[in-house]
Amino acid sequence: MNRRAALRVGAIVAVLVLTFVAGVYVDQAFPDYVPYFGHRSVGSVDLTEVQQAARLIQADYVDANKVNSATLSNSTVQGLINGLGDPFSAYFDPAQYKKLQQSYQGLYSGIGIYLSFTTGYPVITGTVPGSPAAAAGLQAGDQIVTVGGKDMKGLTSDQATTLIQGPDGTKVTMEIGRAGAMFSVSVTRAEIHVPTVRSAEIGNQVLYVRIYQFGTPTETSAAFASALSTGLSGKTGVVLDLRGDPGGFIATATDVISEFVASGETYELRDRSGTVERDQVNGHPLAPTIPLVVLVDANSASASEIVAGSLQVHHRAKLVGTVTYGKGSVQQDFELADGADIHLTIKRWYLPNGQTIDHKGLTPDVTVTLANPADAFDVASPALGYAKDTQLNAALALLAG
Fold first, then answer.
1. Is 295 exposed, middle or buried (0-12, 13-18, 19+ CB in 10 A)?
2. How far is CA 154 from the centre of its chain?
3. CATH fold label, 197-330+345-400
4. Whole-angstrom distance, CA of residue 227 vs CA of residue 208
5. What is the pTM of this model?
6. What is the pLDDT of residues 94-110, one digit of tens each?
C-alpha cells in the first residue's frame, strides 16, 4: 500500500458540484509517496471483533454467496473512519478517489454550481459561466431541496456531491427553492474545467482577484501570479476575494501569501507529538506594498483562513466581511492497495503568532454582512456590477480611505 502525502486543510463547507468534494479542498503538500502508515503505533485499536465478525459472515450468513467482498471490506474501513467522530476524516472508494484526484487538477464532471452547507438545505452561491447549471437558469441563493427525489436537508458536501455528479450526458433532476417558491429542473451533466482564479479592474483603478479554491500550485498559484503581474500596473489597491473558498493546497496558500509579504512565517503545523513545522514565505513578492483588503465570510475555510489570517497577523491586509468558518486541522490522503483512499486528520495548523482559529474562525477588521448571496459581485460577469455587494463596497471604501 502507499500513502499519497496530500496535506490539506479543506473544510466540509462548500463544494463546486462539478464536483469539488468537500474535505478535499484543503491545503496540501505533495511529496509523491511515503511509506505506508502501518509503521505507526495502533495504540489501543483492537481489530479482533472486526475479524471475528468477518468470519461469522463468511461462515453463517444465509446469503453469503451474494455478499460482495469488496463492498464489505469498504464498509469495514468506512466504519473505522466513522468511529473517529472526526467530520474531516473520510473514506473514498476507488471511484470516488479518482474523481477527487481529478478535482485537484480543476477537472470536473457535473453541472457547474458552487454550494454552501448548513444544517438546512444546500444553497447555491454561484454558477460557472457557460455551465449546464447556468444554462438551466440556476442562480445564487437557490436552495437545493431534492436531487433525484432524495431530500437534501442536512447532507454533507460529500453526500450531496455523490448525488449531483455523474457521467457526461446523463441528467440529474432537482427540486429548487427560490424566494418561497418551488420548481423542478433537469440538468444534463458535462465535463467542466473551472478556473480557480479570476480577476478584473473595478472602482478607482483597483485590481479585484477572486480565488474560488486553492488548487494545485500549477493551477492556482500560476494563475494568481499571472493575475497580479498583468493587472497591477497603475492600480491603487487590491481586493482579494476569498468568500466561499473552502480551502486547498498548503503550498498554494504559501504562494499567495508570498506575493504580498516579503519575509517571515506563513503558518505553523503541529503533529500529535507537538513537533512544530514553520513555513516561510518564498521571498519574491509581486505586490509587497500595495494597499490590500481581503474579503471573507462564514464559508471561507482552511487555506482561505491561512491566507487571510497570515496577512492579517503580518499587518499586510485588512479583513472585511463576517467571521470565517474556523477549521484548524490538516488532512492527508493515504492511498490503499485497491485504489481507495483514507483522508485522515494528521496535524493542526496555527497562525504565525501561534494562535489557532479552530472552531473560532477569523474576526474581520470591518464586519459587514451580505443580505443575499446573489448580491455578491460576479467577476465572471463584471458588467452586472457590484452595487448591492455591501462587503466589496466596504473594501473599496477602506482602500479609498
1. buried
2. 18
3. 2-enoyl-CoA Hydratase; Chain A, domain 1 (3.90.226)
4. 9
5. 0.80
6. 888 887 777 666 667 88
